[in-house]
Design brief:
By secondary structure, the chain is of the alpha+beta class. It has 2 domains: about 210 residues, 2-Layer Sandwich (BirA Bifunctional Protein, domain 2); about 45 residues, SH3 type barrels, CATH 2.30.30. Helices cover about 25% and strands about 30% of the residues. It contains 6 helices and 12 strands.
Length: about 270
Amino acid sequence: MTPILIQRVKTGLQTKIIGQTIHYFHELTSTNDMAKELAMKGAKEGTVIVAGTQTHGRGRLGRDWISPEGGLWFSIILRPKVSPRDAPKLTLMMSVAVAKSINKLFDLEVEIKWPNDVLVKGKKVCGVLTETSTNGESLNFAVVGVGVNANFSLRDFPASLRGSSTTLKEEMKREIDCEALLRSLLEETEHYYNMFTQGKFNTVLAEWKQLSKFLDSYIEVTSLDEKFEGWATDIDENGALMIKLRDQTTRKILSGDVTIRKQKREN
């Protein structure tokens, strides 16, 4: 598999911060791990780490993230001057940037499922994982990891994932230009990150909601220690999912897995 050519990504890159420094590795345990290591050594904001493959890629809740060659696996170091409780907003911000890039480059039907999945025709094509380093009420840095199923086939997935996942190659019936995709992703990320740092997250959230089709659906939520059902009614200003339970009370969650059970809310 041809490695991503970083110089080609940077040629024509229209950003001031995101992607001005890019490190490429043929193989890493995880781009997030390398990004955190570099961030702790003082790497500047906007530094990007890209890997040809990951041997121990991570998804949410500690799950393995399958990262074969041909995918676009990268992490971005961010140093926003915000509280640690604002960090979940970065996941929503990144999901919008990914969805916008895929739609713009490939004209595919893209949607977002809370909190970190980007879907094409209802199947997962990308996941986002945000990890942070904090000091009390201060955020030292955040690392936003992105995994895009790009130039590989469904045969490279375990059988258990083939029904719920897809790849850009599968959808386009051809190999896609990963350098152009990464360039677009970095540009969209800077656009939405600037909104976030300028206190305009509500604008980002409004775009997120436009891209989300699962709101008002009946869902099952699974967290580390419980499982419950209800109607997904909204996303609040902090990125939390609002769920109306059958007893008409409302729950707010910041972390969990969502499975759609019914597309339309019952009266």
